[in-house]
Amino acid sequence: MNGLYWSGFTRQFVNQTTGIQNLDANALLAQRCALPPLDEQRRIAGFLDAETTRIDALFSSQCQARQLLLQRREAGVFNAVTGGGTTDDVPSKLVWASSLPATWQSVKLGHFARMGSGHTPSRSRPEWWVDCSIPWITTGEVSQVRDDRREILTETRERISEIGLANSAAELHPKGTVVLCRTASAGYSAVMGRDMATSQDFVTWSCGPELDPFFLLWCLRAMRSDLLGRLAMGSTHKTIYVPDLQMLRIPLPPLPEQCLIVESVRAANSAIDDTIDAIDRQLTLLAERRQALITAAVTGQIDVTTARGVSP
């Protein structure tokens, strides 16, 4: 098989293509390609069937391992913030956790953190959108915390101005404030790494002296499925309404224990995340290997009669 001819055909095909809408169909149909004898076509097809099946099986097993790790991570966070595994558990008043250690409280969040929200300064007042310097959290920032790895937000896509802040219901929240998205990408949360404002898509909690903001953060992440399943409304875009959030209850261990729990969550997650990252690299290599093997086989770059067992 003339591999160089095939490569030339591939290059011409790519040159004719600048996106699906710009593909020149006539030019594509006019291209010529090398066609090996039928028995060789069958050998190539048989080789690729066997090798891609092996790669796909390994890819699938790695994906399953990745999913199990994510489930283990989620379960670990839940167990940590609810004291799972202790021998002195008692029934809790939480709807999302059946029991808590006897030494912990089950409290209304609003009694230990001041709840706030945000706003968007009027877009019809362009003078309010000049000299914008205040970081302003919008739903665009959810992408930073969607995988629950990042805890702190410091940078935002948009900012608002001092005059915009003064002439709207937006508030400047202090560093350490916990934010929760309640619309569109509902349920995702973070801690402010500096003084920031938010849009109306978020609620905020400024914690009092008995509640660590990072412990609250991991509680909110642990209860996300409950927030979305029980409280979120809407068929297309889920929304969690403020009155429901005002009624949230959380577990409350003593403050030193909260800090220890946060550190244990970070350590456990770090180990799992490192393994997930290794799997992701392996998945990328497998996908690249699969495509390279197909290209090499159909362009005659490898002799399939002697290449059995080539897969990684």
Quick rundown:
This protein is an alpha+beta fold and about 300 residues long.
What this model shows, in words?
This protein is of the alpha+beta class and 312 residues long. It has 3 domains: 1-35, no CATH class; 37-83 and 258-312; 89-252, DNA methylase specificity domains (Adenine-n6-DNA-methyltransferase TaqI, Chain A, domain 2, Alpha-Beta Complex). Helices cover 45% and strands 14% of the residues. It contains 9 helices and 12 strands. The strands form 4 sheets. A 5-stranded mixed beta sheet has the order 4-11-8-9-6. The protein has a 3-stranded mixed beta sheet with strand order 7-5-10. Helix 3 (38-81) runs antiparallel to helix 9 (255-298). The longest helix is centred in the first third of the chain and has 44 residues, at 38-81.
